[in-house]
Amino acid sequence: MQEAIILVGGKGTRLRPLTNHTPKPLLGVAGSSFIRHQVAKLMDAGVEHLVFATSYLADLFEEEFRGFSRHLEISYAVEEVPLGTGGAIRNAGRLLRGEPDAPVLILNGDILSGVDLRALLEHHRARAADVTLHLTRVADPRAFGLVPTDGAGRVLSFLEKPKTQEECVTDQINAGCYVFRRSVLDAIPADREVSVEQETFPQLVARGARVLGHTTDDYWRDLGTPLAFVHGSADLVTGKATSPLVGPPAEALIHPTATIDPTARVTGGSTIGRHAVIGPRVIVDRSIVGAGVTVAEDARIHESVVDHDSSIGSASFLREAVVGCHSHVGADNELPARLRLSCGIRIPAQGVRVSGTAAACLTAH
What we know:
With 365 residues, the protein is α/β, with parallel strands linked by helices. 20% of the residues lie in helices and 27% in strands. It has eight helices and 28 strands. The strands form six sheets. It has a seven-stranded mixed β-sheet, with helices on both faces. Strand 4, helix 2 and strand 5 form a beta-alpha-beta unit. Helix 3 crosses helix 6.
């Protein structure tokens, strides 16, 4: 039986307010919760038993997958106190059933990746590795920990985020996907906080364990920020990234119950949720519009998220903005880049503008 663990315990603070009431992996991406895309990918790789390593709003994962069978058994390991990445893996490992030498796939719950999981498992088995890490190359690795390898792919060290370009000895970084030998996973200290990046992996390398890197140029994106989240969803819709749950590449993914005015344009891999209403001459580009959202005439939404049951007034403009659920943005507003509106916020007409208008000035006087 091929087994896997998905780490889904984080609070997703960088994505607030979207994660105020919903764990990050359960947010909608390209028509499904992100976790369902990952589960589908694991099933394609032959996984038959999956353990969710949960903590924040843990019950919502069981609700999401209640009644889910489809040849996959799901277990839930809940952290009562924060255990870190290594501690979460060890805690979830208690529910595994494999033999000591069995490989266990482990995914971070916020990484959209095109890596071939069957190939990763085969690489692990063929090299008799203790741990195999998926590594990816990035143009500027200074925001990440570095993972240099030798000519045979053996991991040499785990380096903290470099402060200067000269310290960038490699462009390879940890891509958040691993294969552990079951016995190595079971050796992680139990019932305390452990970081695999700062403790487990460096100690294994220091002891001479077979820690190998599997470096690919596959699609890879950390969905931890609103803009990355929007781009990842759009890339799935347009086919730049792939998922078993997404059909052929398209300009938009529109729920059958949504209403789109014939004069509106929905482009760039945008998704429109169920029962949303998109009015005349509206432009939605590379954005996520949630269920029950109403967008009035002449509004423009670009690289933004409008969460469920919100409304956007006529001629308002959103760029790289996040509008929490049950919010209202009145007419003629301009929301500046990286603005986030908490759930339930109401902005009156012309309440937020980057540029003034004659009408606004006359009204003010």
